[in-house]
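Reply to dn_fold:

You asked what the input looked like. This is it:
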Amino acid sequence: MRSFEDAKHYATGAALLSIIFSLSFAQAIYGTESLEKNTGALSQSKDLSDFVVEDMPELTQRFRSDKVWNGGDGAITLTLAPGKILWLFGDSFIKKGRMKDRTMINNSVAVQNTEKRHEDWHFYFRGSPEDPKSIFIPNEKKHFYWPGCGTIYNGRLYLLLKNISLSNELPAPFNFSWKSTDLVVVDNPLDVPSAWRYSKRLLPNCGGNIDWAIATHADAKHLYVFCLGKTVSKSVGEKPVKLARILLTDLQNGKYAKWEFAADKHAVGGSPGSWSQDYTLAKSIMPVGGPEMSVFYSPKNKCYVSLFQEPMSEFVSLAVARNIDDTWTKPRHVYRVSETKITINGKKALAYAGKAHPVLSDSDGIVFTYCVNPGGEAEHLKRPDLYFPVARKLILRSKTVARMLESAGK
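and this is what came back:
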C-alpha cells in the first residue's frame, strides 16, 4: 500500500492508510511483536472511579462541519495568535463529490477562530478538491509528513514533523518507516495556511537512539521536546520517554543543533535538574509513552500533566510530575474509549492518538481528543462518519493528582 501523493485515491484502497498512526507508525517505533503484547500493560490500574469524563458534542461536531474536508486523524493544537487555534491533522479525506471518490492526503490543518461572536472553523489543504495536496511536503521523493507538535515564537511557527517513507522490509500495511523528525519553520503563520512558506531542518540523529517529538511544551525560555528512547523490555515493548530542550532564542537565530537532554545527576556529576548535550546521558523520565502525547502545566494542581494513549490501548492515560524534568508518575487510565466496541464487517473500530488540548482547557477540566478509525476501505465506506476526532473533557480532582504525585519516582 502506497501512501505518498501519487497513490492517494480512496477507491484504490488508500483508506487503509488511515490506520497507520495506530498500526504502522506505532509498529515502526515499538515493533510488531511488541505491539501484539502491549495493551496498556504498564498503566497502574484499570479502575476509572477517580476520574470523571464528560462528552463535548459541540466540539466533536465541529470536525464534521466542512463540506470538503471529510475526516482526519492526529488532531494536534497550538495557539497561532489570540483567539486563533491551529489544528494539525494527519491522513485526511478531501471530498469532491461522491463518498467513494474521496481523496486522501497525508496532512492538513484547520484554524479555529474563537474571537468572533459565532466561533468559526476553516479547513485547509493545498491544491483543489479535485486534486488536493498536503500542506507540508518533504524534499525527498516518496516521503510524506505526518503532523507533529511545536510552538510559535516571535512571528514564526516551529513544528516538528514526522518524515515517513515506504519500507520494503516490512509487510503491508506495516510497510512504513519513520525516517526522521524534521524541524519545519513557517515564516508567515498568520497567512492562509495553503500559502505558508516554510523551510526544513533535520533534528540530530543521536545514533538512531532517539525518536523525536512525541510531545512539546514551551515556556518563556525553552522549547521542551519529549522523545522515545531505546526499547527496554522485549516482553512488553515499551520505550522510555526522554526529554530534550533548546533555547527559543537559538531557534530564532537558526542555531538548530544546540539541543541538550535531561540527564541523570550521577552521570554528569551534577545536581537534580542537570542537563547535557550528550544524548547518551539522557535519563528516562517516564517508563512508557505513546507515539503521540500532550504535556502542559496545570496551575490549579501546580504540576505538569501528560495525557496520551499507549500503542494499541483502548484507554487514555494520565501521568503527572512536579517538574518537567522529574521522574513522572506511572500512567493511570482515565477513560476507556467507547468507540472500540463498534464492529464493522466483523472488525472492531480502532481508537488512537489520545491527547489533551490545553489551549481549550480551563480550571474545570482538561479537553482531550482521540481518533476513531473503522478499518479498511469497505469499513470506511460503510461507516464514513467514524473517521473524525472525538472530543471529551476530563474532570481532574486535585486530591487524585496529589495522591499520584506522592508516588512519583517510586
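The longest strand covers residues 69-81.
Hope that clears it up.
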